[in-house]
Here is the input.
Amino acid sequence: MSLEPEVLWLDEQRVVSLAELVDLSGLTQEEVLELVHGGALPVREMRGTICTFSAQVISVARTATRLRDELELDMAGLGVALRLLERVRGLEDEIARLRALLPRS
Amino acid sequence: MKYSDYYAALGVERGASQDEIKKAYRRLAQKYHPDVSKEPEAEARFKEIAEAYQTLKDPEKRAAYDELGRRPQGEDFRPPPDWARQHAGGEQFSFDDMDFSDLFSRFGGARGAGPFARGNSSMPGEDFEVPAEISIEDAFSGTTLNLQLSMPEYDANGGIRRVPHLVKARIAPGAVDGQRLRLPGKGGKGFNGGRAGDLYLDITLKPHRLYRATGHDLYVDLPLAPWEAALGASVEVPTPGGAVNLKVRPGTSSGQKLRLTGRGLPKPRGGAGDLYAVAQIVVPQELSERERELYGELQGASQSNPRGNLESA
Here is the structure.
C-alpha cells in the first residue's frame, strides 16, 4: 500500500521542458516539434533551442501517442486529429457552460 | 481466467488473413477509440479489440491462440498442460492471478521477445490513466482518494501478473472537471530495475443536487416569489462554504444571474470561482381567494406590458 504519494497538477502554471514532455508522453522529440510547428501542441516559450510547455500539454501529447500507436495515424493525421479534438473540447466546455445556465427543472 | 474469443471481438472468421484482421481492427478502432469515440462502452470495447489485435496480428501468438481451440466467450478456462509446456515454459507454470490477455503478453518471456528474453536489460513500468470522480464538496474542501487498482506487473520470469494496488491520493481543493493529476512512480512496477510507471488521474465532478459547475464557477437555481422579484428581497443562498445572504434587486427577471464573487470553487493556486444564483420566478400553483383578489387588483393597476417587444411598431 502506498501512502500519500506526490500529486502533480497538470495545469497551465506548471512548466515542462521539451525533454520532460518527450519522456512523459512517449512521442519522440522530432514528433513533438512537428506537432508544435503544425500548431497541434501549444508551446509556452520557444527561444532558440529552448522549448517549454505548460503541463496541460502532457495530456494532449499522451493522447497523440495513443492515437499514433493504436490508430496507426501518421503525423499529418495526428495533427488534424489533435486540433479537432481540441475544438470538440472547446465546444463541449461551451455547452456545459450554457447548460449550467438552464434551470434544473 | 475467462476465455476471450478474439476472432469474434474483431468480427472476422477464424481463417481470416492478416490483412483482413488488420482492416477489421482499423475499422473498429476508429469507431471505438476512447479518445475520439462517443459510443457507449467505447473504452471497454476498444480494450477488447486492441487485446484481440495484439495477439492475432502476430503469427506466432495467433498460432498459440488457435491451439487453445474454440470455446464460448467468457468460459472459465485454464490452458491445458501441453500448451503450458510448449508456450509458458513448463507444466508447473502457475496461471493464477493472470488474465487471458496476460497469457499472450508474457509470450516473449518464454519465447524470446519480452523483458525476460532481453537478459539483464530493464523495462520501465506501464503508465496508467484512470478516471476519478469526486463530489463538488470534495472539490471545495479537498479529499483523499483510495484507488483500488489492478495492475499488471512483471514476475521474475518476465511474465505478467495482475497485482492489486491500493493507491491513496490526496487531492487538494480546486480540482474540477477535466483536471489531470500525475502521481509519479505510482503506475506499474518496472522490470529488472526499470523505473516504475506513472499514474494519471482524470478528474470529473459528480452531478450535484443543487450546483452545476463550469470550471471553478458554480450555478444554482434561486427560486423567487413574484413579489420578491418585483419588490426586491434579501434571501439566503446555499454555497459550498455555507449559506450567504443575497440582496435581490427590485425588478429581477427570471433567468437573471446574480453573482456572488469568490463563492464558487477554490482555484488550486489561490483565488476562487464565482457562484451565480440564477433567478427563477415561481408562480403559486394554487391561489387562495385573497391571493386571487390581490392579483386581480394588480392586474387592473399595473402599467407593465411584458410582451411589449413583440408588438409591431
